[in-house]
Amino acid sequence: ESLEEVKSLPGRMEFIDLPAGGKRNFKVVVDYAFLPQALKKVYETLKNDYQAKNLICVTGAAGGGRDKWKRPEMGKIAAEFCNEIILTNEDPYDENPLDIIKDVESGFSQIPNPKSQITNKFKIPNSKFKTILDRREAIREAIKLAQTGDTIIITGKGAEPYIMGPNNTKIPWDDRETARKELKNTAQ
Question: Could you tell me the pTM of the whole model?
């Protein structure tokens, strides 16, 4: 009975309300997905159940030497489902954030180009990508790109309150609040 009362969990498929009076009608979603199977499910759900016209993803991967195997998988899945990909900093710990992003980007090459006559040629089908290290700037760029019917999906952090940096430093952070502030700033 208690579960029937739960509307959603913070940072899990959490839809962020757009400011009133905006000229564009798109969706913004924050999800904690940090494993390939979870990321794929999030993208599939947005495409199928919510009929996202175009997916614009803001994504990255955690550092600290953990789970390096999943980084290319995350890139591959983003390339399969998203029309625009913005790779950004997530939780680098003591790793170079650009190295982490390059690992994620390496997954793009796992998507075959059906138009290519050469069997070893690969590209991101129907997708564009860019790297913006500053996570706030990455979210801002996604909002600028969004058109009516699009869905922005911000993954990896969910409701986590920090970005983890070198020597276990904690930078206060909240994807949900950042998205709300950037939506408000770009509504004018």
Answer: 0.89
